[in-house]
Amino acid sequence: MLYSETIKVTKTGTSKLKKLDFENIPLGRTFTDHMFICDYHDGTWNNPRVQPLEAIPTHPAAMALHYGQAIFEGMKATITDQNIPMLFRPDKNAARLNESARRMGMPDFPEDLFVEALKTLVEVEHKWIPPQEGSALYLRPFMYADEPFIGMRAATSFKFIVIASPAGPFFSKRIKLFAEKQYIRAATGGTGEAKAAGNYAAAIRPTEIAKGKGYDQVLWLDAVEHKYIQEVGTMNIFFKIDGKFITPKLDGSVLHGITRMSVIELLKHKGYEVTERLIALDEIAEASENGTLEEAFGTGTAVGIAYIQEIGTEKGTIYVSDESPVGLEINNTLSAIKTGKQKDIFNWMVKVESNE
Ligand SMILES: *Cc1c(COP(=O)(O)O)cnc(C)c1O
C-alpha cells in the first residue's frame, strides 16, 4: 500500500462489498465503505482523512442550507485488464472545483491534495470498481459551508468530502430534447460556469415539465434572446453539419465540461474541424431540413456521449439522423483509453497504486 503521508486512513472492519451484485447496481444509491473528508477553519484545510462513510451531524444554521454555498465535481475511476485503477484527468476536476469555489466565495482546495485524496480513496476502494466495459466507480467530490450563522457573508468553515458510488455500464438510448424558452439555466455573469448546487436546484422543475411532455432532457437556450444553444441537461452539446463539428463557445454561461474538452481534442486528432461559436437553434433546424445535420450528441462524465434523436421546439420538431458514426467512434475511443485498451496518447490517465 502506498497511502499518502498526509492523509490518515482508518478502515472499516465491516465492508458492505459482499452485498453488491456487480451485474445489477442500483444507480446512485450504492456507496462504498469509506469517504475522504477534510475540514476548513481558521483559514486552512485541516485533518485530511479517509474514514468509514457515515452521516455527518449538521447544525440547523449551517450556511450551505440557507445560502447555498455548495459546489461539486463528478468524475470516474476505471480499472484496466491488468487490474490497475485509473483516474481520468483528475487535475482538470481539481482546477474546476477551485474555479467554482472562487465564484461562490469559497476557499480553494489544494489541487495536489485533491488528486491525492482521490487516489487514496480509490486505492482503499479499488475492489468496488466494476470491471465490465463501460462501468466505473463514480466519484463525487464536493464542498459546502458548515458554519452555523444567520447572515449574508461568506462562511468561515467548510467541509470538502469525496464519496464513491459504483455505476454499471450505461446504455444510453437516443434522447429527446425540449428547447426551453420560458426558463433559463444560466446567464452571462451568473453562476452557470460553476458546478454550484443551486444551478441544479433551478433546473429540476423545468426538467420535470419537459419529462411530462415526453422528453428526456431540457435543451438550454441563452438567457437574453432564447435563441442560442447553451447545453443539454447536465451535458455539453455537439453537432455535425456537413462534415464539420460545432459546439457552443464558453461564453460564461456554459459549464466547462472535461468530456467536452477531451472530445474536441479527440475530434481534432482524428482530423475533424471543430468550431466553438454561437449556435442558433434556427440554424440547427435549417440544417435538419436541408439534410446537412449529420450528428448531434451530448457529452458528460456520467454517460460519456448521449446521442440525440430529436429536439422539440415551438416551431416543430428537429430530427437528427439515427446514425452517429463519429460520435460512436469517439465514445469507443474514450472508453478504450479509460480501460487501458487503447494507448493513452494524450496522457490523460492517472494510475492509482494498489498492490492487491
Ligand atoms: C458536469 C456538467 C457537464 C459535463 O462536464 P464533464 O466534466 O464533462 O462531466 C456539462 N454541463 C453541466 C451543466 C454540468 O454540470
UniProtKB/TrEMBL annotation:
What is the top-level taxon of the source organism?
Bacteria
- The first-level EC class reads transferase
Q: Which Pfam families match?
A: Aminotran_4 (PF01063)
* Alphabetized CDD domains for the sequence: BCAT_beta_family (cd01557)
Q: Matching InterPro entries, A to Z?
A: Aminotrans_IV, Aminotrans_IV_CS, Aminotransferase-like, B_amino_transII, BCAT-like_C, BCAT-like_N, BCAT_family
Per UniProt, which keywords does this protein have?
Amino-acid biosynthesis, Aminotransferase, Branched-chain amino acid biosynthesis, Pyridoxal phosphate, Transferase
Report the catalytic activity.
Answer: L-isoleucine + 2-oxoglutarate = (S)-3-methyl-2-oxopentanoate + L-glutamate; L-valine + 2-oxoglutarate = 3-methyl-2-oxobutanoate + L-glutamate; L-leucine + 2-oxoglutarate = 4-methyl-2-oxopentanoate + L-glutamate
MF GO annotations:
branched-chain-amino-acid transaminase activity
- What cofactor requirement does the entry state? pyridoxal 5'-phosphate
What's its EC?
Answer: 2.6.1.42
Query: Could you tell me what this protein does?
Result: Acts on leucine, isoleucine and valine.
Q: PANTHER family under this entry? A: BRANCHED-CHAIN-AMINO-ACID AMINOTRANSFERASE (PTHR11825:SF44), SUBGROUP IIII AMINOTRANSFERASE (PTHR11825)
Describe the family membership recorded for this protein in Swiss-Prot or TrEMBL.
Answer: Belongs to the class-IV pyridoxal-phosphate-dependent aminotransferase family.
Name of this protein: Branched-chain-amino-acid aminotransferase
Q: Which organism is it from?
A: Jejudonia soesokkakensis
